Amino acid sequence: MPAGIAASDAGPRELPAWRLLLRRPAFDVGAVILLFWIACAIFGTAIAPHDPLAQQLLGTNQPPSAAHWFGTDPLGRDVLSRVIVGAQSILIVAPLATVVGTVLGTALGLVLGYRGGVVDLVASRIVEAVLALPAILIIFMFVVALGVSTITQILVIGFIFTPLIARTVRSAVQVESQLEYLAAASLVGDRSIRIMFVEILPNVMPAVLVEFTVRLGYAIFAVATLAFLGFGPQLSTPNWGTDINANYGLLTAGYWWATLFPALAIASLIIAINLVADAIEQVLAG
Amino acid sequence: MAIYLLRRLGLAVITLFLLSVIIFFAGQVLPGDPARAILGPLSAESAVRALDHQLGVDRPLLTQYTSWITGVLHGNLGESYQNQSAVAPLLRAALVNSAKLGAFALVVIIPLGILGGVIAALYAGRPIDRVITLTGSSAAALPEFVTGIIVIVILSVQLKLLPFPPQIQPGASVSSQLRSLISPVIPLVFVLFGYIARMARAGTIEALESDYVRTATLKGLTRVVVIYRHVLRNSLLPTIAVIATQTGYLIGGLVVVERLFNYQGIGNLIYHAATAKDFPMLEASVLTIGVVYMVATIGADVLTTVLNPRQRTEAAR
Known about the structure:
- The complex is a heterodimer of chains A (about 290) and B (about 325).
- Chain A is an all-alpha fold.
- Chain A has helices at about 1-5, 15-20, 25-45, 80-115, 115-130, 135-145, 150-175, 180-190, 190-230, 240-245, 255-285.
- In chain B, about 80% of the residues lie in helices and about 0% in strands.
- Chain B has 14 helices and 2 strands; from the N terminus they run ααααββαααααααααα.
- Chain B is globular and about 85 Å long.
């Protein structure tokens, strides 16, 4: 779908956007890593060499070996299997939160950018008050206040993203508002809701797409950080951040594997998304 | 200039007021009863009621807010439920610790970020530029605890160069304090490098394309002189502004980094206050962060205005 949207934007003689994307090595590397984690999330338990939940009390804190490539954790569970299956919870929560934020933020941005005026002024003030605090701190406080259900996490992160995405969409809409096709549409007598969603929206889609990919990286950041602080999504599957929180105290004893491998998993996923986002931005910018 | 500054201060006060309202009512949403949290689950209902009354949390919300904000304006931040002592001294001690960590991070990151950005700009579009830009944006996207753990595993567990968790003894020498701060600072540096480098890069590229730089080059000045005398001075202005806005990210990072390294700063304070439902502590520390952020942004604005004559006249209008 992303390629399709961008393709309609490209001139007739240019290569379609997805071909331009594939030509970028950074995009290819990012996409391969991302697809790897998506595969882990979907087929998790089928790929994992061991049961990620099976405890083995005689084999706790074993260093990496042929039987357990990433070693075992304090309960004797296989770290590699937990890392593979752990892709699932983060790849459910973070994209859903980003979708919530993108949909709401785009709608809000369209209205603010097209209508302007008092609503725009008031909304901008409130956004500024919220932005005076680090986003992760606000998300943390709300999750502490509202409890740690998966739905709460998705909504809180989505709502925090809403004003941020709205700001970007708003400025993209303001640029569009100067263009003649809009004047034509309102002369023809189109209603403003139709103008916003049928005329303007397709033209600001590239900006929305870039915003989505960038925010997705930050959603992963936020979900992982919450889990590390002890407020992970309450799913029965293993979770990278929660595992790190449970095991990092063991670093002083020299048991680094149960902490380092989930950390590297988070790092690789975020970097992959970042590479993809950067490539999309570069291609859309021409 | 004075009018501009007054307007900025006025807006900051309004924003802080909004923030205080948001924090206060968000704090009230936190589930659980403060007295119950202090006395424990087994205490008698009557004792819980009595303590609730003593703490004043059984009054209407608006009354509670007015008395809280009046206290804050008079410099009385209230009493921590958790520690049964005044909030202010605890907050001050934590703030000093965080300031040390934050200042150390900025001292490292500002020259490093600017250097990275200027190099990227001088080689714009070439591989070295892509490497610096992508490294910067990827590092900025990594959660602090992830980079922190990689740092701990390499420097503390494998190479045994730095202590984990860092122990800061009271009255320790400056050099040993700095040594213990090295590991917590690295994740903060990672997060901020990308933003500062990106701003420095954009500013430098703009300056490089300007007429005055072309004139300087055409009149035969060497590249080093042109960059030092004409490019840097103009390119660093926007960078100063962005450094201050990044204070917010820096503080957000502190919560996580201080938790990971068990460092007694304001981030750790907020974490414990939030999990223990210690409202007065939470409200005071979050409001403090808001104030620090405001001061930093306004400070940056003033600095930019002082350094840039064009903006000075625009602001006066």
